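Submission checklist for the structure archive. All mandatory fields must be present; incomplete records are returned to the submitter.

[x] Identifier: Cell division ATP-binding protein FtsE
[x] Organism: Siminovitchia fortis
[x] Residue count: 228
[x] Sequence attached
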Amino acid sequence: MIEMQDVSKKYPNGIIAVNGLDILINQGEFVYVVGPSGAGKTTFIKMVYREESPTSGKIIVNGVDISKLKNREVPYLRRNIGVVFQDFKLLPTLTVFENVAFAMEVTEHHPKEIKRRVMEVLALVGLKHKVRMLPSELSGGEQQRVSIARSIVNRPQVVIADEPTGNLDPETSWEIMNLLEEINAQGTTVIMATHNREVVNTIKHRVVAIENGIIVRDEQQGEYGYES
């Protein structure tokens, strides 16, 4: 599903964020990406959905070398990738329904299909009863659930989650993890950058540790391995 071949990223200020990454992630895997702050995790994540481009190397997503994509082709790539952010990134003037529907409207789905699918994913995340509310009327956990609903509404093959529990209390964090587990159980590949030691050590999955831009550990059923 996702392969990086000798991938490096050097920013204009001279900082080398990642250096010579080689990794293969198969369809249906759940992968935690861990490491100290500034280790290169966010750059790793952003390169998968082409928010950042590598300075060198090859990134293949579902058979396509995305490092060679033209900018106008990137939106088509993202139709198969859902992204969940730490700060939710919901549109504040749109309702819960409209925020999730927006992801389908840009891909020009029929209004009837949009309504059916949006209600389906809002039921999955337990927010069917809050369709008319604005983000400001929701708790942080509810906003993150809307963000997850938006990320899966187009049935992506991959969901990228960048610190999805970072702004949430422990109880809500577990609710979000249960949702991501359920999405993964349906066959969606999940890649999650996280500092949440307890989650990684409790819900076992593959752990890829990045330090100083290099993969230093890649373990099935791994541990977090850092002080929290």
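[x] Structure attached
Curator remark: DSSP finds seven helices and ten strands in the chain. The beta strands are 2-10, 16-25, 30-34, 56-61, 64-65, 81-85, 158-162, 189-193, 206-211, 214-219.
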